[in-house]
Amino acid sequence: MAATSELVKYASNEAAIQQVSRPLLFSSTIVAQMKGEAEAFAVEAKAKAEAEQMARKADAWKQYEDAAVVDMVLDMLPKVIPAVFTVFTVKYCLSN
Fold this sequence. Notes:
Layout: H1 2-95
């Protein structure tokens, strides 16, 4: 009988340990899930910030490109105007 009572006592202790461990296991699962969600949020936030940075950089390059074209046109204008003026002058003189 002593062995049977010891066995019953051991089995009830194991059941008690499992009942106590179950919330710990459940809470560690929740912690792992929350950690995963936090990491996903951080990755998403970083990706959004990088995308915004790339969009701003592209906009800056576009503005730079536009300014470079205007600069080249203004730089070439003094060279082009005399040539255009000469062509129109010659054409006007020849037609009269």
